[in-house]
Amino acid sequence: MLRQLLSFAAAALIGATLVSEPAAARTLDQIIQAGTIRVGINPNFPPMSSYGKTNELEGFDIDVGNKIAAALGVKAEFVPTETAQRVPYLVADQIDISLGALTRSAERAKLIDFTVPLHTESMAVLTTDKNTTQKWTDFNSDKYTLVNMRGNWSVDFLKDKLPNAKVLLVENNADTVRAVAQGRGDAIIENIDFFLSFTKSYPDVKWRTLNDTIFTNYDSIGVSKGNDGLRNFLNVLLYDLHSSEYVNDTWKKWYGQPMLKPVVPTPYF
After folding, report:
1. At what angle do helices 228-243 and 60-72 cross, to 10 degrees?
2. pTM of this structure
3. Disulfide engineering: 115 pairs with which of 10, 19, 68, 234, CB 3.0-4.6 Å?
4. Is-contact 222 86, C-beta < 8 A?
5. Tens-digit pLDDT string for the chain (269 aa)
6. Do 146 and 189 touch, CB atoms closer than 8 A?
7. Could you tell me if 41 and 100 are in contact, meaning their C-beta atoms sit under 8 angstroms apart?
């Protein structure tokens, strides 16, 4: 019994240490010498990344991760993470970089470092030709039903900004698009880049995206705090990948449409 208690106490101490003290991150040279780079991805987030028909990982993040590995001359080791695990995995040195639509924010910047943006995500309106609205605020009426996903932060945002609109909550991105395609809802107001690929399942629907963008977030590659050698390498590589249109072309490959607000490459970091 005493041994079990001591083991439990030791495990608790190790866990507390991982939370309070960041683990030493692998440097750029150590990654190259190891021959692999550990890439955090979310495998439940198509078409960013997911398991395809052959049960192999595929998607935008998988292509980008392999491109980064090739530039380093190593292999990509993809590590599945959930959204909430991306920053803790970096802090605990469980991964070298994090993809998975990691939005750059001041709060996260206290814990990890960010590269220049890899892509954007824009909050805007996805609807059909069955309504002629031109502004997102036009949906503040009880004649419209907005479709959203349970648990999304935007549910509360829209309740606050468009209190008169009716709301239909569903389980995932595919269900959200299906509800609008079937006429059970009028529009989706969200980071709609992530919904557009699902519209391909309904080719008979005339989809519309409004130019009235509400705001745009910038998503970067996350690295451990102070891992400047790796971050500087990625910044140089991202400039090349944006300038050569690799990022935009890969985005269109998986989403079927251009990024709503593409990243403008800059040579200064």
Report:
1. 110
2. 0.84
3. 234
4. yes
5. 334 343 334 334 434 444 456 789 999 999 999 999 999 999 988 899 999 999 999 999 999 999 999 999 999 999 999 888 999 999 999 999 999 999 999 999 999 999 999 999 999 999 999 988 999 999 999 999 999 998 888 999 999 999 999 999 999 889 999 999 999 999 999 999 999 989 999 999 999 999 899 999 999 999 999 999 999 999 999 999 999 999 999 999 999 889 999 999 999 98
6. yes
7. yes
Token pair 């969200």 is found at 190
Written as one letter, the residue type at 234 is: L
Read off the amino acid at residue 135.
Answer: K
Report CA 49 to chain centroid distance, whole Å.
10
Pull the structure tokens for residue 100.
């998975």
